[in-house]
Amino acid sequence: MIKAEATVKSGKSIKTKLFHSFLFIVRLGIGCMFIWSSLPKISQPYDFLSSVYSYELVGPRPGMFVAMTLPWLELLVGICLIGGIFIGGALLVSIGMAAMFTFVLGSALHHGLEITCGCFGASATEIIGYSTLIRAGLILLASVAAYTSIFILQSRAGGQTGG
Questions:
Q1: pTM for this one?
Q2: Angle at the Cα of 42 from the Cα atoms of 49 and 53, rounded to 5 degrees
Q3: What pLDDT is recorded for position 2?
Q4: N or C: which end of the chain has fewer CB within 10 A?
């Protein structure tokens, strides 16, 4: 009876409100992180290019492409997530970037590279380790969970939730 009353008064169930809150918090957190990490890379592109090369996975041309596009993509995704614009697409790109970065970190750790992350520009001096890999994995997990929650919200609303 209480559940029905809560649903009638607000028009939404408590579970739906929790999903909305979860999605908002994750969007805000990941969006801020992407914007925060993009700005030093945009302002110091050659330092970021050096970070890209330090992972020893790409040659000069692909490395240049990554260094020129990734920071702007991070900024765009961050703005979309915070602004609530194209949320589904932004979360898909977030999943792709987080999955790729998790793979890249795993490769660097597997090969014993002692390099800085390059995540937040050249001023960040943290050497990659398992904590960096776990952090990337958590970002990936949060992005997947947020993306999944969109479909849960859509099914509860009969397809009314945009994304």
A1: 0.83
A2: 10
A3: 42
A4: N
For every residue of the chain, DSSP letters joined together read: -HHHHHHHHHSS-HHHHHHHHHHHHHHHHHHHHHHHHHHHHHH-HHHHHHHHHHT--S-HHHHHHHHHHHHHHHHHHHHHHHHTSSHHHHHHHHHHHHHHHHHHHHHHHHTT---B--TT-TT--PBP-HHHHHHHHHHHHHHHHHHHHHHHHHHHHTS----
| pLDDT tens figures, 105-144 | 999 999 999 998 888 876 667 899 999 999 999 999 999 9
- Phi/psi zone of residue 71: left (φ > 0), alpha (ψ -120 to 50 degrees), beta? alpha
